[in-house]
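---------- Forwarded message ----------

FYI, see the Holin-like protein record below. Original note from H. follows.
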Amino acid sequence: MQLGGKIVLQVAGLFVLYYIGSKLQEWSGLPVPGSIIGLLLLLTLLLTGVLPAGWVDHGAGFMLAYLPLFFVPVTVGIIEYPVLLSGTGIVMIIMTITGTWLTMFIAGFTSEKLSKKGGA
């Protein structure tokens, strides 16, 4: 199968997991976004071997390649309207930095554990 076709099918598969996660959240009323539930479903399928990583790698890579484009409008908005951050700006900056560090630590820790286990 051509690479373009693989990417389309893999992105569609990832979307299906997102959709299932959203419906599970809607049905159960959990205070967790459906997208997170979908990611947990994906993680479970990958860790159990039900879904080999090769079945989603090109689609995930494609979406990650364009992820920075989603941050451009937010950045431009902050630059154009700094008054919006005047009251709570420092708190938001601290929260953003802390969240980024925490995310990087957890991602690195998880990657290390999976690579030692032979899963990544």
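H. also flagged this: The CA atoms of residues 35 and 118 lie 27 Å apart.
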